Structure formats: structure tokens, C-alpha cells
């Protein structure tokens, strides 16, 4: 199977997979019927946020201040596009 075929298949299945994941979160009481986190869901979400921040930090810590500035400058147009598309 070609990469393009895999991408198309993944994109086609994404809504079904997302619905299944959301159903599982609802069944566990982590999100409500509107898809918002419940009190029970906020704590694991916060733990995941902290862990992903910790895991993402080492590559940035390895950059010099000048390299970090360059990275931020290069990413600003992408960030602006995502923000304008409300994909924060």
C-alpha cells in the first residue's frame, strides 16, 4: 500500500475513531455529553499536559538562545496561520 493510500485511509477513518474514543471517555466519566471535561477528567488531562511539557522540553533546552530565537521566528508564520484558523 502506498503512503498516499495510507494517509487517505487514516483520514477516512479518523471521524469514526474519534467518535469511538469520545464514547470511551464518556463511558469512563471523563467527558460529558457535550465533549467537555468533567471534574473527573480534568485531573488526568492536567497530568498528561504536564508530562507532555516535560517530555518536549529537552530538545528546546539543547538549543542556544540564538537558535531558539531563530526557531521561534521560523515558526511564527505557521503559528499565525493556525491561530487564524482557530486550531490552537
Structure description:
The chain is mainly α and 88 residues long. Helix content is 77%, strand content 0%. The protein contains 3 helices and no strands. The mean pLDDT is 88.
SSE inventory with pairings:
Blueprint (H helix, E strand, L loop, with lengths): L2 H25 L11 H23 L3 H20 L4
**Percent of sequence in beta strands:** under 5%
> What's the number of extended β-strand segments?
0
Largest sheet: none
Q: Helix and strand string, N-terminal first?
A: HHH
Quick summary:
The protein is 77% helix and 0% strand. It is built from three helices and no strands.
Based on the model shown, name its key terms:
mainly alpha; 3 helices; about 75% helix
Amino acid at each position: 500500500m502506498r503512503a498516499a493510500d495510507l494517509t487517505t485511509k487514516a483520514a477516512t477513518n479518523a471521524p469514526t475513531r474519534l467518535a469511538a474514543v469520545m464514547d470511551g471517555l464518556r463511558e469512563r466519566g471523563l467527558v460529558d455529553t457535550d465533549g467537555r471535561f468533567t471534574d473527573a477528567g480534568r485531573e488526568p488531562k492536567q497530568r498528561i499536559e504536564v508530562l507532555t511539557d516535560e517530555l518536549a522540553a529537552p530538545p528546546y533546552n539543547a538549543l542556544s538562545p540564538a537558535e531558539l530565537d531563530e526557531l521561534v521566528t521560523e515558526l511564527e508564520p505557521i503559528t499565525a496561520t493556525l491561530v487564524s484558523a482557530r486550531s490552537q
